């Protein structure tokens, strides 16, 4: 329509940058407190042999629900333990518990306030609509910038996603208290607080607990999404299985999540009126469980609080002995784990997440001139935007420089010879790729950045299309992983194929599905195979089902990367400096 596009994205980015700049100390404090509390929860739940907690949860399920639920809980948790997923389950339970506690502390008071004030309800209702309909992934973007990668942004995103039901149902439950009861309490001269505490909340309790139950289920549904920003637990196991196409491992982790969901749902539904409440008074049963938890919590909190927290100028202390990584299961992550082993970095932790989460963490640290160590690779736009350096790798843990290969499905040469030849002749340099990546990072849409590069480099493109006749609408599908380098290369070759008359479809997937898709013929080609290290596992699995057309780019590099302002030059320095 010719209307000027609102720069809404720029406004939001400016607001986020302002918040980060002026409130970073507050976010750091929240992060430290949340991580400490979560660490305590993990230690409490993991205290002693796993069978102790399994029996305690099973007895609670037996008490609140039927004996069949108790038996299911016992067998289900024993199965999880047998599958080797108990530690991951503990981490997920700690994340859910933290999210639910925060949700109740926020949701119930806000629900009470909304029930007592119509204007508050009118203001809060559209906000809740926004919170429930906005995709949960969107919450992770600012959460990473505010709190870094790890469990904290996962918890906060879970709270935002899960708190609306608690607020809504608390408000609804109180408002549905019969008017004649309210009039009776007013007639007896009850104060607002007496009316709320003695009449409204007790009668609204079933509805409020239903809201809490829904919040628990929504928090559980965020477990996998939270793993994208480095939150540990069963979600990370599912994410790792997805990226590596490990069907069996993914099923095991998914089944564990289902078991935990059923257990939490049944227990939370029957807390108010337990099935065996007439035989064992719930105040004693719940009191006993609460007492055990509080003793364990306080004991663990005291231990954590009195732990040695001395700081020094060592690089490890400055970065909390953490290396910020990318997708779990990526070849770069495996190479980093090998390097940590080779250099004896036993006390260090490699934080999993995603490439987007890693670069967000890097941006936050770089803007504040704080130390950080990330898993890096070239070409990548971060080397053009920030002054970074690779740490020397004298032991060669990261191997030699890599190449990016083009892979196509078997039979493509016969089915679509023109597109096959263009893909076979596709080759460019890291500097070419970085130009496209830089434009995308500055806000240009990938397809527009690719078109701009193609228009400005017709001599290079001519080599790719040499002796190739124009297409006639033949379909060609390209798959790629959401790395900045692969977004650039796939959009560029896709643009060239379109200009040559082909009907091109681009599909963004994870690394595992990318190779599997070309191998099974559901996709035609990929230009994103990093060899010989990064994607070696996928090549081993699918090498007989793929046609390797060779490198489309040489001169890539993997390694640990730090800002130039850090006084460290080698991986060996991580132990000594």
Q: Can you put this structure into words, describing what you see?
A:
With 577 residues, the chain is an alpha/beta fold. The chain has 26 helices and 9 strands. The protein has helices at 8-45, 50-64, 67-82, 86-116, 118-133, 136-147, 151-175, 179-187, 192-221, 223-226, 234-244, 247-269, 282-305, 315-318, 331-342, 355-367, 382-385, 412-415, 417-425, 430-441, 446-456, 458-464, 484-499, 511-519, 536-542, 573-576; strands spanning 322-324, 349-351, 374-378, 388-390, 402-409, 475-481, 503-509, 525-531, 546-563. Strands 3, 4, 5, 8 and 9 form a 5-stranded antiparallel β-sheet that branches. The protein has a two-stranded parallel sheet with strand order 1-2. Helix 4 runs parallel beside helix 7. The model is unreliable at 306-311 (pLDDT under 50).
Instruction: Tell how many strands the DSSP assignment holds.
Output: 9
Described by the principal axes of the CA atoms, the overall outline is globular
Poorly predicted residue ranges? 306-311
Distance between the termini: 60 Å
Largest sheet: 5 strands, antiparallel
Portion in strands: 5-15%
Number of helices: 26
Oligomer: single chain
Share in helix: 55-70%
What Rg is obtained from the alpha carbons, in whole angstroms?
A: 28 Å
Mean pLDDT: 87
Judged by helices, strands and strand pairing, the structural class is alpha/beta
